[in-house]
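Reopening this ticket.

The earlier resolution said the output was attached, but the attachment link was broken on my side. Pasting everything inline this time so it's all in one place.
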Amino acid sequence: MGIFEARTSAGPGRIIVTLTGECDLSAREHLTAILLDALTRAKAVFVDLAPLTFLDSSGVHSLITAHHAAKHTGGRIYVVNAAGPVAAVLDLTGVGALLRAPADEHRHV
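Inline output:
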């Protein structure tokens, strides 16, 4: 589909993964690898979706895969700053509620 980019940056006690563009089947393996790698470097991974314009079930799959991996290692993955169609997909699938960051943590991303 379109261009997709995942950038990581470190914050205090966390890794922030910022997703840009369109996340579809062509991005699934790359996104999953980025998220799983981030979980090896920090117990808390925040996925910033503000610049993301499209998310399909493949991207949701990557987020759920990372969520299960985090549970096995005592970590957490959160999604933040979702808007528009991306937020709608997360809400429809229940992933938005599952991976919602605590309010006091959300402001640090």
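Reporter confirms the inline version is readable. The first strand starts at residue 4 and ends at 11. Helices lie at 28-41, 57-73, 84-93, 95-98, 103-106.
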